[in-house]
């Protein structure tokens, strides 16, 4: 019988769902999403990888820069012989523990274990994959791998991941559809940075500084500083005027 997440686990799942519902684009979603995922399926680190791999694209992880260039190269060299990678690449992609696929002894015999997993403390892993809409190279998917150093994942962790998997997929498909073809940044002419633009987008939707900080995964003070820098670029003297001018520049 599969264990269900407790009350605290359900609250964390609902927090992720709330974030996904309100997401406006993938770039601003991920900084807030990854910490929530790592609390919902607790672990020491998390890797978010988009497939097919785009050469030169940075690997998204928490903590940042989890894998060195040498470890990334070693993973690429050995991934074809890793059963958990195979499950998320050509298998069903449903949440799966490494321990469901191989023994600890078999894990330690993997070349990837010695060169990648052991150095980053990934003694135990839970991974899943799901469709994520279309990218520049056509249909794409996302693999999420959560790592632990001292204890394996339990059935409640698997259930929490399963509850989130379809919701993550639906949100990313929606965002990829909304994104449309790549266009030049609309803020280039007035010097508004991409991060300031993300704050202004949410401000124009009526969100408070605290709500914006939650969406972007930054502090309210950081939101306030972004707005301070954006005001003179828009010729605005306050929140209402900035939101109004930003909406005009964005167009319909």
Explain what the structure shows:
- This protein is α+β, with helices and mostly antiparallel strands and 252 residues long.
- The protein has two domains: 7-179, 2-Layer Sandwich (Beta-Lactamase), CATH 3.30.450.80; 194-250, Winged helix-like DNA-binding domain superfamily/Winged helix DNA-binding domain (Arc Repressor Mutant, subunit A, Orthogonal Bundle).
- Helix content is 52%, strand content 14%.
- The chain has eleven helices and five strands; from the N terminus they run ααββααβααββααααα.
- The protein has helices at residues 7-22, 26-40, 69-78, 83-89, 104-108, 111-117, 155-179, 194-204, 209-216, 220-234, 239-250, and strands at 45-51, 60-62, 96-97, 124-135, 138-148.
- A five-stranded antiparallel sheet has the order 2-1-5-4-3, sandwiched between helices.
- A hairpin with an 8-residue loop joins β1 and β2 (60-62).
- α8 crosses α10.
- The longest helix is centred in the middle third of the chain and has 25 residues, at 155-179.
- Residues 180-189 have low confidence and may be disordered.
